[in-house]
Specification:
Number of helices: 6
Strand content: 25-35%
Largest sheet: 6 strands, mixed
Shape: extended
Structural class: alpha+beta
Order of helices and strands: HHHEHEEEEHEEEEEEEHEEEEEEEEE
Radius of gyration: 33 Å
Length: 422
């Protein structure tokens, strides 16, 4: 073989090696891109299914709200449940709702609303219904498969926010007369460092503090009853009855601390805090080892006249006075307290409905649990004794109340006699 031929052979071999090498590189790159595209497509499909299943569960919650509205509207009309009543009428709605709640039934909503679909035990919420139809709604096959409703809950759950910082919580239970204490739990749901930020010593007194601690006010209202009806005078809402150790109103300011506080507020302490001269904040020991960092048991004193409390006028008012941070709250009705802790409880009745809804999209399921208010807990409640309004928020009146009052006249403060001042 000539030298020229050998040189051409080597040159051709190098070219082949280069072509093979580049082919392998481009093949790897192409396969990588295909893999990325397929992964993205799979993730996008899964995300669509995941969101669609969640939307299906939410559709079940919305239908549960409609069913509850129909049920309570029928109850307000004095209707009574009856098996075999005409479907969709009040007797049928009441019967179906109460049977569904008693039996923990998944199909109660679709029966109350008349949405049975060929005994599929689910409610289809897609727009298309037949295999010949096309579109994403058919491909996702959305439905809610199980919705359970109960109006008796172990606790009351809510979240206080800057725009919704007050909640009125009725104390209603079929066994309300046996309730002798409240287990109250709370803490900010966006706080991760409890110790360093919020529970250092004297955090409320630090002028340099730029954050609001999760202090909460816990206000108790209750009244006596006479032949089952509420009975009280306005004066009984502003003082305790020393003779009977009873009160109809008390305001507790609860402040989280790391140590040195308490987790039990006795009935005697609640009585003390019905007096405006003795309502200093109460330090509550908190930690981050449970769902709620702060938990305190509050013993309930007797009513002012020591009669059984009227259920219709027994409630709590909870508030975050600094309007921040957002704070989750839990309330439990205790029937037995041992060593400062709630050892037995009774259920809330007709205050919140617990809805457990499961949604489906193809073969992916999502479950949503939520609470629905059954009473108006957002009705107007006076936040302050005096409101200022107008362009400059000016107060152009002098006023005084009670004994040993102070009179302010154009900025000059002086004492005033105990007589009417107009």
């Amino acid at each position: 073989m000539s030298k020229h031929t050998i040189t051409k052979y080597k040159s051709g071999a190098v070219s082949i090696y280069i072509v093979v090498f580049l082919t392998l590189i481009f093949g790897v790159i192409t396969l990588s891109f295909i893999r990325i595209i397929l992964n993205d497509a799979t993730e996008s499909t899964n995300a669509d299914l995941y969101q669609s299943a969640y939307d299906s569960a939410l559709a079940g919650v919305e239908d549960a709200k409609i069913a509850l509205l129909k049920y309570h509207d029928c109850l307000s009309q004095g209707a009574v449940g009856k098996n075999g009543a005409t479907s969709g009428t009040c007797p049928d709605i009441i019967y179906q709702m109460e049977q569904g709640a008693n039996n923990d039934d998944c199909d109660v909503v679709q029966r109350v609303l008349g949405r049975d679909q060929e005994d599929q035990h689910e409610v289809i919420i897609q727009e298309t219904q037949h295999s010949t139809d096309i579109g994403n709604s058919y491909e996702l096959a959305q439905a809610y498969t199980c919705v359970k409703i109960t109006e008796e809950t172990d606790d009351y759950l809510t979240t206080l926010t800057s725009s919704d910082d007050v909640r009125i919580i009725p104390l209603r239970s079929a066994d309300i007369n046996s309730v002798n204490a409240i287990e109250f739990s709370w803490y900010a749901n966006n706080v991760s460092d409890i110790t360093n930020k919020y529970m250092s010593a004297n955090v409320l007194e630090k002028a340099s503090t730029t954050y609001a601690p999760p202090v909460i006010t816990f206000e108790i209202f209750q009244t006596d009853s006479n032949n089952g009806q509420p009975y009280f005078t306005l004066g009984e809402l502003s003082a305790n009855n020393d003779a009977s150790d009873g009160t109809d109103h008390s305001l507790l300011v609860l402040k989280p601390v790391q140590s040195g506080g308490t987790n039990l507020i006795t009935a005697a302490n609640v009585l003390d805090h019905s007096d405006k001269y003795d309502n200093a904040p109460i330090n509550v020991n908190c930690n981050d080892t449970s769902d709620f960092a702060c938990t305190v048991t509050v013993e309930l004193p007797p009513t002012f006249r020591k009669t059984p409390p009227a259920q219709a006028t027994r409630f709590l008012r909870v508030n975050i006075p600094y309007e921040q941070p957002n704070t989750d709250v839990s309330v439990t009705l205790c029937t037995a307290v041992s060593e400062g802790k709630c050892t037995d409880h009774t259920k809330f009745t007709g205050v919140q409905a617990a809805v457990d809804s499961t949604g489906r999209a193809n073969d992916l399921y999502r479950r949503v649990e939520t609470r629905i208010e059954l009473v108006d807990v957002y009705y107007p409640f006076p936040e302050y004794s005096l409101y200022l309004s107008g362009k400059d928020n000016e107060l152009n009146k002098s006023y005084y109340v009670t004994n040993n009052c102070k009179k302010a006249d154009n900025g000059a403060v002086s004492g005033c006699a105990n007589s009417a001042y107009i």
